[in-house]
Specification:
- The protein is mainly alpha-helical.
- The chain contains 16 helices and no strands.
- Helix 1 (5-22) runs antiparallel to helix 5 and helix 11 (260-289) packs antiparallel against helix 14.
Length: 469
């Protein structure tokens, strides 16, 4: 039995997206090891994460235009090559400065890889099968970030930190060969000229904003420089929006937000990822810092959320044409809110299997959110606009993940200071747990806010994706 081309596209694209997204979190558990082996300060090591994030944000805006101009297949393959090369260079970094630079190369490639891969999938599937496409993309979107700490813990338990990057090389080579041999080229006959001012404003605004957010997340709400950078980033993005509305060939067509379904589905995604990413950041930190778990043990505790998403995604793909996005998204965010509540009241003796169960059910809620959001957001987008719409969609998600993590990290840093529990040693376990409880409350509020946002979605706007095959 021969596999249909649309599923070949999905498999190859998911392969590349997974490799990119897993690198968002796999390095987290290696931070202390990197600081020790490369003789770096905590602020220097933080740039291994922040640099990747900023480079990602800088390159996402240009992905739509570049794919239309040079061809989606070609750009996807080039991105895989650069990402694999960046991984190899990271593994052979000789000091912290070289590692940060090579992570910038990785992040830049990743900023192209995920939006282009997403656009390839949604172009391969017809409108009435976009819930299926969404269910396939959900796999790397959720399992990869959740798998990062687990895979990183396994590697560090048996090998050196270099192998965190070396594992990408055979995977990347396989992806390059598969994309080269199996994918067909697609390009826009009239992509327009590169909007250079738009690129500078969008990349500069996103990069500056995420840098400021990262500073606040690591240093706390009192980091004045972080607030200044964040405000500058918001101002630059505001100028970018005004500029793009008057440009003939905009880099990112902000007029897409005049489409009610596109705007509201992106808003629901933003609210959902704010809370989910914050919670996923807090739990491993709590388990390692307060309960004394190893990185591998903490990774195994958070992984049930990914299993929950994988369980729910194929079910929702079948239910979506009957139920529509609005009720599914609201149900997912409600379920996530309910299962976040126990973390607000947990203590140092809370049963670990109970927490694993809550993470699994939380994953079910995340699956309820992700599949309909990704299907509905492209419901009324034309094939020719899919590349640029994908850039907007991925930028929204990336900013939301960064914001959610930074908000919860800033609340945690502030509350740990209030409770005089910054060291996170066993003598401060009760005080530190109180700080984590309040940070989880922030995560809960963010998710619950998403329920309100989702209530404004109209199923009739997504009618094209609800036709039965």
């Amino acid at each position: 039995m021969r596999l249909e081309y649309k599923y070949i596209v999905a498999l190859v694209s998911v392969f590349g997206i997974f490799m990119n997204l897993i690198d968002l979190t796999i390095v987290n558990v290696a931070m202390p090891v990197l600081a020790n082996d490369l003789q770096a300060s905590p602020s220097q090591v933080q740039w291994v994460l922040t640099g990747y994030l900023v480079a990602l944000a800088v390159c996402i805006p240009i992905s739509g235009w570049a794919g239309d101009k040079f061809g989606m297949k070609r750009l996807f393959v080039i991105s895989l090559v650069l990402f694999t090369l960046g991984s190899a260079l990271c593994a052979f970094a000789w000091n912290i400065e070289s590692l940060i630079f090579f992570r910038l190369v990785q992040g830049a490639a990743g900023g192209l890889l995920t939006p282009v891969g997403t656009a390839l999938v949604f172009r391969a599937f017809p409108n009435n099968e976009r819930s299926k496409a969404s269910a396939l993309i959900v796999i790397p979107t959720t399992i990869a970030p959740a798998s990062g700490p687990l895979l990183g813990g396994i590697i560090l338990n048996h090998l050196s930190w270099e192998w965190i990057f070396l594992v990408n090389i055979p995977v990347g080579i396989a992806g390059i060969l598969a994309a080269t041999l199996l994918l067909r080229e697609w390009k826009d006959d009239n992509p327009g000229q590169l909007d250079v001012p738009g690129f500078i404003l969008a990349s500069g605004g996103l990069g500056t904003l995420l840098y400021g957010v990262s500073r606040i997340g690591s240093s706390g709400l009192n980091d004045i420089q972080g607030w200044i950078w964040g405000i500058i980033g918001i101002a630059v993005l505001g100028i970018f929006v005004l500029f793009e509305t008057k440009t003939k060939d905009p880099l990112i067509d902000v007029r897409l937000f005049q489409d009610r379904m596109f705007a509201r589905a992106n808003a629901a995604q933003f609210a959902g990822f704010l809370g989910f990413s914050g919670g996923l950041f807090l739990l491993p930190f709590f388990l390692q810092g307060v309960r004394g778990m190893t990185p591998l043990e903490a990774g195994l505790m958070t992984f049930p959320q990914a299993i929950g998403v994988a369980t729910m995604a194929p079910i929702i793909a079948r239910l979506y044409p009957r139920i529509g996005p609005r009720r599914l998204i609201m149900a997912g965010l409600t379920l996530a809110s309910i299962t976040t509540l126990p973390f607000v009241f947990m203590d140092v003796d809370t049963n670990l299997w109970f927490l694993r169960g809550m993470m699994y059910i939380r994953g079910l809620g995340f699956g309820l959110l992700l599949v309909p959001v990704q299907a509905a957001v492209f419901a009324t987008i034309s094939i020719s606009a899919t590349g640029r719409a994908s850039a907007v969609f991925n930028a929204t998600r990336q900013v939301a993940m960064s914001f959610g993590t930074a908000i919860c990290a800033a609340v945690l840093t502030s509350r740990l200071s209030t409770y005089s529990a910054e060291r996170l040693d066993p003598t401060q376990a009760i005080a530190a747990t109180n700080a984590f409880n309040e940070a989880f409350l922030a995560s809960l509020i963010l998710i619950a806010f998403g329920v309100l946002v989702a209530s404004f979605i109209r199923d009739k706007d997504a009618a094209a994706t609800m036709q039965r095959t």
